[in-house]
Write a structure and sequence with these properties.
336 residues; alpha/beta; eight-stranded mixed β-sheet; 8 strands; 51% helix; 12% strand
């Protein structure tokens, strides 16, 4: 049994707390929002973010962050990506040297172009950071529906330890050394999901969505390889797997925000309607800046940025994508 604190009491942090309790670990879910903690402690249910999922009586909830972050075998960083740096900075001094931190937030910081694990390592240099990512909506994990995910770490023994913590008959965990690929796939798939939602909002069909998913993973893969990631990662769980579920699922906040934008909402109106952090909006600019930095063509990511931040009409963006210069799908020299 491990002592584990979940930093963040959103839907994903709460679902992972339930999973880890099922696995026999001592779990404390931490939130600075005292009203949220009171609701969780009294009802053992997150009534706003994970309604209908009853939480075990042995799961603990606290707003005393400093107490909950010391003396723990594992910390799970489950804050939304815009708040990872501020959280890590605020509590760095109370987190002991060598602490294992499993990051489950997905995003790339706009001004630094850092992934979440890089941010944590910057703010807490002595931490041992792993990442957990893949196609895993909290609503389904909370209902104990079969889910498969991947853990990345610099050391294999760390990845194996985290794999053993989380894995059970309904939650299968693979291991990988490709932290960069895992985090890039988990971040930029949200941008492509915005595009898929926009296409849905415009009334386009399955052909359009399939094209966006397929060409979207091509963009992410090209960029990832340029950044030192492995191509195989993007054909796996944190690449095409996470992209498919985020582009297609009714649970996807990014697809929903895109759908509303396709229906005529502004970005701000769509985010307000979704009522949760739409992380693709925060990753879109970073994705475009990374592609420019590495000299990689990412037309879908560029089009999403134009719709979000330059007031381009969604239909015009789609028309421009469709009328781009003719291309080969494979390398042209394969013709011989």
């Amino acid at each position: 049994m491990a002592k584990i604190s979940i930093i963040g009491a959103g839907s994903w942090g709460t679902a992972l707390g339930l999973l880890l309790c099922d696995n026999g670990h001592e779990v404390t879910v931490c939130s600075e929002n005292k009203e949220e903690v009171r609701m969780l402690a009294e009802n053992h249910e997150h009534q706003t973010k994970l309604p209908g999922v009853l939480l075990p009586e042995q799961m603990k909830f606290t707003s005393d962050m400093e107490a909950a972050l010391s003396g723990r075998d594992v910390l799970v960083m489950a804050k939304a990506s815009p708040y990872v740096r501020s959280t890590a900075k605020k509590y760095a001094e109370v987190i002991p040297d060598g602490q294992l931190i499993v990051n489950v937030a997905k995003g790339v910081e706009e001004n630094t172009l850092m992934t979440m694990s890089q941010i944590i390592e910057t703010e807490i240099p002595t931490a041992n950071v792993a990442v957990l990512s893949g196609p895993s909506h909290a609503e389904e994990v909370g209902r104990r529906l079969p889910t498969t995910i991947v853990v990345g770490a610099q050391k294999k023994e760390t990845a194996l330890y985290v794999q053993n913590l989380f894995m059970n008959p309904v939650f299968r965990v693979y291991t990988s050394p490709d932290i960069t690929g895992i985090e890039l796939g988990g971040s930029l798939k949200n941008v492509i999901a915005l595009a898929a939602g926009i296409a849905d909002g415009l009334g386009y069909g399955d052909n359009t969505k399939a094209a966006l998913i397929t060409r979207g993973i091509a963009e992410i893969t090209r960029l990832g390889i340029a950044m030192g990631a492995h191509a195989e990662t993007f054909y796996g769980l944190s690449g095409i797997g996470d992209l498919i579920v985020t582009c297609a699922s009714v649970h996807s906040r990014n697809r929903k925000a895109g759908y509303l934008i396709g229906k005529g909402y502004t970005m701000e109106q769509a985010m307000k309607e979704v009522r949760m952090i739409v992380e693709g909006v925060y990753s879109a600019k970073a994705g475009l800046t990374l592609s420019e930095k590495y000299g990689i063509e990412t037309p879908i990511i560029k089009a999403v940025n134009e719709v979000l931040f330059q007031e381009k009409k969604p239909k015009d963006a789609v028309d421009e994508l469709m009328q781009r210069m003719k291309k080969d799908e494979l390398a042209p020299d394969l013709w011989g």
